[in-house]
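Supplementary Methods, section 5.1.

A reviewer requested that the exact input to the structure prediction be made available. We therefore reproduce it here, unchanged from the version used in the analyses.
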Amino acid sequence: MASNKSSKALLGAAFLMATSAVGPGFLTQTTVFTSQLATSFGFIILISVVIDLCVQFNIWQIVTVSGKHAQDLANELFPGLGYLLAFLIVIGGLAFNIGNVAGAGLGVEAMTGISVATGAIVSAAMAIGIFLFKEAGKAMDSFSKILGLIMIGLILYVAFTSHPPFLTAIHHTFLPEKFDAASTLTLVGGTVGGYISFAGAHRLLDSGIKGEESLPQVNRGAATGILITAVIRYFLFLATLGIILTGAQINPENPTASIFENAAGQFGKQMFGLMIWSAAITSVVGAAYTSVSFLRSFHPLLEKYHTYLTIVFILISTTIFLFVGKPVKVLIFVGTLNGFVLPIALAILLVASTKSRIMGLYKHPYFLQIIGWIVVLVMIGLGIKTI
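The structure derived from this sequence is encoded token-by-token as follows.
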């Protein structure tokens, strides 16, 4: 029974990580960059998946073995560092959530014709409803799994009906014709940047999965999360590619909607609505939950009232979106911003993993440390090149 419970928690954490990564920003970035790089965008997806694996295995292992949230590890490493990390993650998570709320509004508009603002308010109310459940964690896991599977189904349908050049796409995934540093930074930032890398790891801790004995399960959960994300992104890329190569016009105000509409007319537009709404609402839940998990341990009152803090976080994101607007620009910018947060967060955890006063007798694998530091350097390099 216990192993069944932990399997459910692992799958819930994997889907929370994947659906947090597959938000409206992810959909928008994939569409915009596919239209710029065509078949070579497959190579950037491949790089992002490899980096994702290196990041997730490091973060999930260090957090779950130590049994401590990332900000507490950082504070133990150097007093005050946890507050800086929490600040970066929460600011990035808030920016992401403004985009997520915008995406939910776009989805409702595409499905029903209701205004984006009204759709955003209704969606935010639904997300808040999940945290009002007594068993909010279980409700969140089930919600992420169901909508994650709906997203995969919708993308597979469009990928196969748009008839992309599969063989050319696969060829250029490994041998690209062109490369772009900015899109790589944005893509990795949008997949494992900022709060997203910690969504699954913090969810596992809150489910009671921790300690060195849990490592095989933890690694399985991390790999599952990345695999789900990779499948969704690659098939979305293929779907977009098939439509773009027909010479279809892409609406810059809502690029992903154009793809679905070109693939299946009005029905496609409504399918897009369901797709982006599913992506957005699960990301609203994931961003709010994970960002608040970075604040909870700082004071007993924050721990006691973390549910209300999560609700306030969603309300603030929604209010800012209603006053700011411009969802597509927000969605691209936020991925880039979180791409800069990632090397800082990962470097802190890699240093913490070498300290026996924090990790006890556990020795973090050298191989993971080496590839972790390579990712930190690559991300800093891409960041400098982008600037």
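Residues 71 and 82 are 4 Å apart (CA to CA). These observations are discussed further in the main text.
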